[in-house]
Amino acid sequence: MNLLIKNVILPDGDKLKTTDIAVTDGIIVKIGCADENFKADEIIEGNNRLAIPAFVNAHTHMYMSALRNAADDLPFMEWLFNGVMPKEDRLNGEQAYWGSLLSCAEMIKRGCATFCDMHLFPGNSAKAAAECGMRAVVSRGLVGSDGGQKRLDDQFAEIEEWKHEKNIKFMLAPHAIYTCDKEYLLKISSEAKRLGLGLNIHLSESKAEFNDCMRDNGCTPTEYVASLGLFENKTLAAHCVQLTENDISLLAKYGVSVASNPKSNLKLGNGIAPIYQLDQAGVNVCIGTDSAASNNSLNMFSELNYMTLLHKGTNYDSTAIPAKKALDFATVNGAKALGFEKLGKIEEGWAADIALLDTDVPQMMPLRNYYAAICYCCDGSETDTLIIDGKVVMKNKELLTIDTERLYYEINKIVDFLDN
Amino acid sequence: MNLLIKNVILPDGDKLKTTDIAVTDGIIVKIGCADENFKADEIIEGNNRLAIPAFVNAHTHMYMSALRNAADDLPFMEWLFNGVMPKEDRLNGEQAYWGSLLSCAEMIKRGCATFCDMHLFPGNSAKAAAECGMRAVVSRGLVGSDGGQKRLDDQFAEIEEWKHEKNIKFMLAPHAIYTCDKEYLLKISSEAKRLGLGLNIHLSESKAEFNDCMRDNGCTPTEYVASLGLFENKTLAAHCVQLTENDISLLAKYGVSVASNPKSNLKLGNGIAPIYQLDQAGVNVCIGTDSAASNNSLNMFSELNYMTLLHKGTNYDSTAIPAKKALDFATVNGAKALGFEKLGKIEEGWAADIALLDTDVPQMMPLRNYYAAICYCCDGSETDTLIIDGKVVMKNKELLTIDTERLYYEINKIVDFLDN
User: Taking the model in full, what pTM does it have?
Assistant: First the structure.
């Protein structure tokens, strides 16, 4: 299957160039004039469109879009126990699937091709991703102090069910140190080792988590997890807001990837992760949206914008986290954390996960700089085409793999059920 | 002229209602079923659209959209002296007009009806606003240590020229304490008093400004301006990032309005204004985008989102600056600061400055909460209709008062001139 993307704008040093991208079987085979013998099965006209590597959303909870706007501006505990959990408790697997598909629709519309999901309902996000052609790393949120074998077994069954889907991968996800006891953490770590899977964990998100761990274990959450040997697995740690200098050294030493969720951390009153310092220490930083129940948006352009501006502002340094670096966080670093090889750059030999952005809109005028345009000007609505693994899933802003009419109908049904 | 906006969504306590809005000669005359004898000259079908008060952008530099993406990720002084100023020096009045019109186009597309501009080229933003039907408060940035009579005279001539345009108002704008000497500040203040005009000033934006003022005057920038008597004029102070507790008390005592520009302050490495504390002290807080050379976007939805999230996060309080309050900052508070009466709310007897937002998009599903949807879900692209002073300036995302083809042509010409 040959795809030709014509006349798109790419960076050329500090300048811009207009060029073609030829894709064969999901791989970028040529940037520039395609070979004469390249016969395109499909041609995308990219006129005046910026081509960017599609985003990798490194931390989210897909089903929770069904809970969007259910509880906001509340103290954290009230948000969780009165706002989110009572609705979550009533949600079933099929409703979680529709919630996940809604997340897929929003992400595709905003140029995101890949997500890392921590879920409660096996199969829901894998099914949504497979149907709409996204890449996913899926993990069941494992909680408990009862050994949690049932949840692990659910996870193993889910892995078995989706093992033939090449764009669906798995991690094991001990939810957090405050929802898993020590024995369960060790068990999950050993199962991950046995299966060669990575770990996906919420780590040091709030001051409460940090202080409780200091009180109970005499060390920081990061030190605690390191001391249990979890970091000997390939690990993706979400949040990492409350970190000491030693924590940053540990994350760097063990090659832990950090999925930062700047908007969720701010909105829930948890603060700002020391991303500038993590990056300086050589940690692989990536970006997540967290869920639509905490954010309440899954727009990676907005996260990208926060990622650059927030760390310039709080470090009093307008050169901190430049646009090009932040784009790497949101693309290739995420792919690396999730174990996708050669994903997240527009280069020959790399995967054809590409978003095209319309530049004929006031906020993109004048264009001048590729990276500044993406990080500082876009609101995300400029995305009009999305290609994942060489397949076109959105064209001229129309979703080709999702029936939105049906989706919205099902979402409204869920709201009627949950809110009344 | 009667306008009927049908079937829009408005808040109804904690719930939502679908209703009509009837407008006569720019004023909302009825919310609910219009009177039987209300004969609409124009009907807008608002199906599934949220009606919100159009934004008031309380601080910007309109012409600078022509300089967008010219210099980013640089140290502040390099940005200003090597990036912005050499281009600014080459810009002429007509080019500034096209830059201003580009700003108008971007703002209208993102639901903004009113702006407060500090410019270098008399007439450019007033002309742009008048042509496209926006409301504006216009001020010439007054700088100098030479008495600056010429710039004041330019300003007076501009005021005279536009005095018959009811939606164009003026302020006098001493640019900042570091660009105006004491005598000039006093002169401008006295001229403002004479003419009954408000003042528009950049205040305490950077640590450098704060520290220099402490060194040179033995007091903070806010104390310095207060001591000169400037606050005896109705004053709009932009930025106010570096503030002491006494500064906050002074701003409250003198009824100074603060135009906070959260994204610009972050991006230029200046930090975060103490908005939570200013609001608690009773200061009238409003929101600006600053210019497209520093931000680089004029999207008030994004500023609104930053305004809520940033102050929740940095105050470790998820209840800080709730969505409803932030929307007031971005609408009615801005109108108050700029001297527009009964502007910024959708209520009977108030001005018909209304934006309609499409809710049939993934990021707005499920809707549930009016204020959360506006502040936490929207990226701004949902805006499909904008009504200013009862006139429809955008319908179905099409700008009715701006020829964008010509505009983009002129902008590209300016880039060719400035960048080569």
Answer: 0.98
Q: Encode pLDDT of B22-35 as tens digits.
A: 999 999 999 998 77
Cα A272–chain centre separation: 18
The pLDDT assigned to B379 comes to 98
Chain B contact present for A64, CB below 8 A: no
pLDDT in tens, A216-250: 999 999 999 999 999 999 999 999 999 999 999 99
Give domain B2-53+343-399's CATH superfamily.
Urease, subunit C, domain 1 (2.30.40.10)
Report the candidate in A6, A98, A64, A88 with the shortest Cα–Cα distance to residue A264.
A64
pLDDT for position A146: 80
Taken in order A297, A298, A299, A303, the sign of the CA dihedral is positive
CATH number (3.40.50.1820, 3.20.20.140, 1.10.10.10, 3.10.129.10) of A55-338 reads 3.20.20.140
- DSSP secondary structure code for residue A40 in this structure: -
Cα–Cα dist B107/B102, whole Å: 9
CA–CA distance, A114 with A54 (Å, rounded to integer): 8
Structure-token pair, residue B397? 């995302």
Q: Retrieve residue B163's tokens.
A: 């005095």
Please name the residues between 324 and 383 in chain B that touch chain A, using a CB distance below 8 Å. 360-363, 365-369, 371-373, 376-377, 379-381
Q: Chain B contacts of A371, Cβ < 8 Å? A: 72
Q: A373, B69: Cβ pair inside 8 Å?
A: yes
Q: The tokens of A61 are what?
A: 């909870």
Q: Give the DSSP letter of residue A65.
A: G
Is the dihedral angle over the CA atoms B155, B161, B163, B167 positive or is it negative? negative
- A297: phi then psi, degrees, rounded to nearest 5: -140, 150
pLDDT, one tens digit per residue, over B32-68 is 987 788 999 999 999 989 999 999 999 999 999 999 9
Q: Tell me the shortest Cα–Cα distance from A238 to chain B, in angstroms.
A: 17
CB atoms A298 and B363 under 8 Å: yes
Residues near A215 by beta carbon (within 8 Å), at least 6 away in sequence: none
- With beta carbons less than 8 A apart as the criterion, state whether A278 and A249 touch: no
Architecture of domain A2-53+344-399: Roll (2.30)
B318 contacts A76? CB cut-off 8 A: yes
CB contact under 8 A, A68 and B365: yes
b/e per residue A296-315 (b: at least 16 CB within 10 A): bbbbbbbbbbbbbbbbbbbb
Q: Report the distance separating Cα A189 and Cα A174, nearest Å.
A: 8
Contact assignment for A295 to B106 by CB distance below 8 Å:
no
Residue type, position A49, single letter = R
Backbone φ, ψ for residue A249 (5° rounding): -60, -40
* Residues pairing with B142 in the sheet: B174
Candidates A314, A376, A411; nearest CB to B295: A376
ipTM: 0.97
Per the CB < 8 Å rule, is B312 touching A76? no
Query: How many whole angstroms separate alpha carbon B234 and alpha carbon A212?
Result: 50
- Taking CB atoms and an 8 Å limit, are B318 and A65 in contact across chains? no
Name the H helices within A9-91: 76-78, 85-90
Contact B71, B81 (CB under 8 A): no
Please report residues of A whose CB lies closer than 8 A to that of B317: 269
pLDDT digits (tens, 9 = 90+) for B340-356: 999 999 999 999 999 99
Run of H or E including A248:
helix A245-253
Any A CB within 8 A of B397 CB: no
Query: What are the residue ranges of CATH 2.30.40.10 in chain A?
Result: 2-53+344-399
CB contact at 8 A, A79 and A268:
yes
